[in-house]
């Protein structure tokens, strides 16, 4: 198990290095001059030259890449030219919104999807199964920003139970911050719950056809015990895979939702940085998300071994 874990970490590091090169080169070939975008079309040539010198745009591409990578390795992500502050400081402020939002969304989607998927699998071919999977199909088809607009109208405009947008900050209290994140978390969780419910149902149906499940039922074991303690544990591997992918998506894919609810998170930060051509911020946020995806995949592989002891023996 230790050798497997070390191998996965080594593969993750190589992937991170390759991803850094791809991210840097993609942003390098984007048309337009960042200095010209920041200063405007009527900027003086001397001012443009000074800003290019300050941003390091006059250096060779390889030197800029090596300087950027070595800086990130030591915790120096550079300085934002739009916000005039360190990129790492900006990320630290914004991640305190995006990370709780992703965690709440992941919890809600899991709490909804697992019971629905198990319920549908245990009633295969019956009206309850058809209704559950029909609702899941609707959840997959409808985009999360549409859910967000409906939730704002119902709970913020009509019922006035929660704020329609904005974030008061965690200094205003845990409950105030949670209320501000509740609607965007639900809007993010519903489509993900629909996907996870369908995966859970498929995995459960495959497991429920195994011989050991029929043996447990033949011995008189209660249906609830068979479903939750035997079938679900063996159906968790594909579910864990989707959960890992969903967490990465929820952390990285909040650009639309954070703009709908006017949340100062990573999604809104990267949207503003792209609009303002603040490339150093874009590079820093994207690399943070890449590292998060790699770390989550390693944790999912560890979860495989925890759920299924046969994998530990095989590895």
Automatic annotation (TrEMBL):
GO terms for molecular function: dipeptide transmembrane transporter activity. Keywords: Cell membrane, Membrane, Transmembrane, Transmembrane helix, Transport. It comes from the Bacteria. CDD domains: TM_PBP2. The chain crosses the membrane at residues 9-30, 95-121, 133-156, 176-197, 231-257, 285-307. Residues 95-300 form the ABC transmembrane type-1 domain. Its main location: membrane. The keyword Membrane applies. It is a multi-pass membrane protein. It is found in: Cell membrane. GO terms for cellular component: plasma membrane. The keyword Transmembrane helix applies. Belongs to the binding-protein-dependent transport system permease family. This is Peptide/nickel transport system permease protein. It comes from Nitratireductor aquibiodomus. The lineage of its organism: Bacteria, Pseudomonadati, Pseudomonadota, Alphaproteobacteria, Hyphomicrobiales.
């Amino acid at each position: 198990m230790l050798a497997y874990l070390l191998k996965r970490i080594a593969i993750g590091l190589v992937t991170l290095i390759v991803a850094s090169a791809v991210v840097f080169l993609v942003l390098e070939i984007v048309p337009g001059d960042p200095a010209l975008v920041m200063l405007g079309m009527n900027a003086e040539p001397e001012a443009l030259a000074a800003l290019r010198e300050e941003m390091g745009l006059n250096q060779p591409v390889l030197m800029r890449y090596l300087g950027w990578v070595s800086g990130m390795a030591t915790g120096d992500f550079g300085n934002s030219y739009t916000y005039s502050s360190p990129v790492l400081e900006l990320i630290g402020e914004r991640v305190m919104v995006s990370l709780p939002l992703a965690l709440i969304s992941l919890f809600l989607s899991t709490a909804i999807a697992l019971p629905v998927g198990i319920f549908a699998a245990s009633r295969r071919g019956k009206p309850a199964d058809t209704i559950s999977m029909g609702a899941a199909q609707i959840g997959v088809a409808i985009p999360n920003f549409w859910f967000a607009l409906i939730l704002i109208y119902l709970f913020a405009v009509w019922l006035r139970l929660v704020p329609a947008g904005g974030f008061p900050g965690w200094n205003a209290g845990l409950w105030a911050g949670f209320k501000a994140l509740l609607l965007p978390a639900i809007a993010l969780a519903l489509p993900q719950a629909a996907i996870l419910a369908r995966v859970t149902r498929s995995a459960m149906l495959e497991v429920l056809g195994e011989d050991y499940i029929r043996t447990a039922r033949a011995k008189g074991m209660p249906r609830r015990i068979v479903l939750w303690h035997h079938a679900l544990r063996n159906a968790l591997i594909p579910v864990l895979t989707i959960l890992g992918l969903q967490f990465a998506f929820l952390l990285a894919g909040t650009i639309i939702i954070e703009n709908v609810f006017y949340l100062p998170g990573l999604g809104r930060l990267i949207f503003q940085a792209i609009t303002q051509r603040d490339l150093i911020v874009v590079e820093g946020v994207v690399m943070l998300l890449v590292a998060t995806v790699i770390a989550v995949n390693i944790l999912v592989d560890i979860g495989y071994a925890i759920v299924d002891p046969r994998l530990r023996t095989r590895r």
